[in-house]
Amino acid sequence: MLAVTSQPSRCAELRAAGAIPLVADLDQPATLARLARLAQIVVHLAPPHSAGEKDQRTRNLAAILPERATLVYISTTGVYGDCDGALITETQTLQPHNGRARRRVDAEQVLRGWARRRSGRLAILRVPGIYAANRLPLERLRKGTPALVAEDDVYTNHIHADDLARVIAAALFKAAPLRVYHASDDSQLKMAEYFDLVAKAFDFPPPPRLPRAELEKVVSPMLLSFMSESRRLQNQRIKQELGVRLHYPDVQTALRAMIATGENVEQRE
Predict the structure, then answer these.
(1) Beta strands per DSSP E along 29-157
(2) Per-residue pLDDT tens over the stretch 40-58
(3) Which of 25, 27, 181, 187 is the one with CA 20 to 30 A from 194?
(4) pTM exceeds 0.90
(5) Which residue stretches, if any, does this entry annotate as coiled coil (predicted)?
């Protein structure tokens, strides 16, 4: 397995994980030439730039992908925008509300175009919040960053990193061409409920609650954007079409497993 990185300093880490590192940079098309000969099965994880309306990195990748390659693209559920808490399927109309989401929509469209022109096999995974033992909001809880009061709160969606890896592996071999999948668990939690679960599991006080009008004054614009979109994800496609059995079907199950390992909170930071 090849792992592409733009940072030579990561090569040892990737080798230790069992991958063969290849230094290339999606921002520098000239460095991608070797990929055109080597990449027949690709997992595209790279995020777009932090500004603009287009994802030039994905455009650079699509330009060198070989004919009939298989590609799984890790997109985001932010492409749907705010759905007012509705339970949605993969056919939901895309209404991206910010630049990050619009760049993801652009990447999806670019890759669909590549797949149609080059007979590529493309699957798009729309992924919500990824968590794991080392990806919990512990620092936020330490700082006492407030959450929304219940009447203003939003639904969020989650997937454990290990389960996401299983979905990716299944999509590489079982996904229908040009198919979209929600890589999400079964949780249906509001954001503050998620923070409360993590706080309780690791003996932190629950975050204080503020009405939206007050919270807007004390959190960053980026954090506020995550607290302004509410949706729940239907995930039957990954189960019925990809045959994925989630090891962590909800956040509560994963937190219990983390506690059972005996690791302490400081080791996760």
Answers:
(1) 41-44, 70-76, 87-88, 121-127, 129-131, 147-148, 155-156
(2) 999 999 999 999 999 999 9
(3) 181
(4) yes
(5) none
